[in-house]
Specification:
It contains twelve helices and 13 strands. With 352 residues, the protein is an alpha/beta fold. It has one domain: Metal-dependent hydrolases (TIM Barrel), CATH 3.20.20.140. Strands 2-3-4-5-6-7-8-9 form an eight-stranded parallel β-sheet. The radius of gyration is 19 Å and the shape is globular. The protein binds N-carbamoyl-L-aspartate and zinc ion (ZN).
Length: 352
Amino acid sequence: MQRVTDQLDIPVPDDFHLHLRDGELLRAVVAESARWFGRAIVMPNLASPVVTVAQAFAYRERIVRALPANNSFVPLMTLYLTDQMTVAEVKRAGASDVVFGIKLYPAHATTNSAHGVTDVAALDPVLDAMADMGLPLLIHGEKLGPDIDVFDREKVFIKDVLIPLVRRHPQLRVVLEHITTEEGVQFVLDGPETVGGTLTAHHLLLDRNDMFRGGLRPHHYCLPVLKRMEHKRALRRAIRSGHPRLFLGTDSAPHPISAKEASHCCAGLYTAPLALALYAQVFDEEGALKQFGAFASHRGQAFYGLPVNLGRIRLSRQSRPVEVPERVLVAPGVEILPFYPEDGLHWRAERI
Ligand code: NCD
Ligand code: ZN
């Protein structure tokens, strides 16, 4: 009889897509990511976006200052691509040892994306400079338009924007972040070695039905929005495939409860506290636990040219569901709700 794995040790992973915010929110959330991850690619979509290397340096300083004592977490900074980005700034970023990628948000696609790109092709000289400097383009892959259904944004972006972009820039490394569709998975599976992709725990666990179960659920609203269950199944097949360029990016995106439980609720799930256990549960359900170490601790590192972290994490299956995490107090009256799956969570992570 085959023995069921109930424990797994992996090198400390990295989070290749994370929102740490700023100010009191940063101070409230950074410790959880620093507890579980060695490094993280930190998103630049602050209220005033991180568009220059000088701003990335300053934001990095604020993150490091907010870390608990004796914590060696390394924030890997990104710049926010705007229509005004210059080749000179890209060269500064590439020469710096703090900037690890430049983030493409199509204008108005998501939280704080008003400064996003309106015409990607107009930025070809900037993208050429990124390829020369070896700086990857990190992509929020959604195309918006009056005739584009919100559930089709990723598929349309891949066809209309991404495939042509990869053809025009064969040397540029690109990461299709937080993949939510079968088309997104296929784009990475069929892509050349320059193409990678990240998967979130919540898109592996949830589908759009979860947004409406028993009433409208603002805490399940994220962008790209949850898709049909067939797409969730395609993402789950992808983790079984063991593809070398599909890796972990939580897209943990905290918002105060007051901004979630509101008309025009903000998009984003705060998954950082239980992220590793959430992923482990999905990999377990898919019979893919053997792939989890590579997914979390090796593949993204290889794509970004980073060494594997020292230190290890132990994941273990629990016979009873682990406890629901407490709300995070940001300031008096301001709290964040960590994501916890409705059917319970039967995995626990610990640093060993
Ligand atoms: C992110 C945020 O809140 O910054 N929200 C989300 O739903 N993922 C932005 C993003 O990554 O799209
Ligand atoms: Zn994000």
